[in-house]
Design goal:
Strand order of the largest sheet: 3-2-1-4-7-9-8
Mean pLDDT: 96
Structural class: alpha/beta
Strand content: 15-25%
InterPro entries: GlcNAc_PI_deacetylase-related, LmbE-like_dom_sf
Shape: globular
Protein name: PIG-L family deacetylase
Distance between the termini: 14 Å
Radius of gyration: 17 Å
Number of strands: 9
Number of helices: 8
Low-confidence stretches: none
Keywords: Zinc
Organism: Streptomyces telluris
Pfam families: PIG-L
Helix content: 40-55%
Order of helices and strands: EHEHEHEEEHHEEHHHE
Largest sheet: 7 strands, mixed
């Protein structure tokens, strides 16, 4: 995984998207003195069946801020797109391009934009939000550097930024790179555990056992492909 960058911007659809694996890598990056900002398209208000969106949204936003703090991320922003029905289009691309221009990262991190997920020998259909957000992120990286796309952003003081060197896609079924993130595992577990309300609605398993088992299993799966070291894998796009 490249190390010639200092600032990262992580753009995902929902609270907990980054905590299901990528946060261990974020923790190790911060240990190296790098910076990372989290940007979420929604507050995840439709994610808990037993809670109405008006109640779930603020709760999940609080849990996400706590989860980010557990790995050392201080800045978390929410765009307020409707959970579950986030639409790919110019409005979403504009929001992401604006954030990229504002934060000026060299690395942009997002979640699997492909149609499917893989876990072990099983394949699962990906959600519309993940697909739409991931694809919009990939497009917005180019939009952010083109002064003639969304020219109103420049009028608002957000000048073009063509400094993104890499886009790293977490959870991709086509990983190309990996980060040795074993030193970030405990913080990643603590980070995912901050989403306790969501996890308790998801499983009857003890939340801490669930979080550790899930993350350790994912990192060991990466180890099997990338030199035997537990880690977090990414599909990396160079620019």
């Amino acid at each position: 995984m490249p190390t010639d960058w200092r600032r990262a911007l992580a753009i995902v659809a929902h609270p907990d998207d980054l905590e299901y694996g990528a946060s261990a890598a974020v923790a190790t990056w911060l240990d190296d003195g790098r910076e990372c900002v989290y940007l979420l398209a929604s507050v995840g208000e439709a994610g808990i069946d037993t809670l109405a969106p008006a109640e779930a949204g603020p709760l999940r936003e609080r849990e996400q801020r706590a989860g980010a703090a557990a790995v050392g991320v201080e800045t978390v922003e929410f765009l307020g797109h409707p959970d579950g029905v986030i639409e790919y289009g110019t409005a979403l691309r504009r929001d992401f391009a604006a954030a990229i221009r504002r934060h000026r990262p060299e690395l942009v991190l997002t979640l699997n934009h492909h149609d499917t997920w893989s876990w072990g020998d099983s394949v699962f259909w990906n959600t519309p939000d993940h697909r739409n957000v991931g694809r919009a992120v990939l497009d917005a990286v180019a939009d952010a550097g083109n002064r003639w796309i969304f020219p109103d952003l420049a009028e608002e003081g957000l000048l073009p930024w063509d400094g993104v060197r890499y886009v790293a896609v977490a959870g991709s079924p086509r990983p190309t790179h990996a980060v040795d993130a074993s030193s970030g595992l405990d913080r990643a577990v603590a980070s995912l555990l901050c989403h306790r309300t969501y996890i308790e609605a998801l499983t009857k398993e003890d939340p801490e056992t669930y979080c550790r088992t899930f993350l350790e299993g994912g990192m060991q799966g990466v180890a099997a492909r990338f030199g035997g070291r537990p880690g977090v894998s990414f599909e990396l796009f160079n620019r």
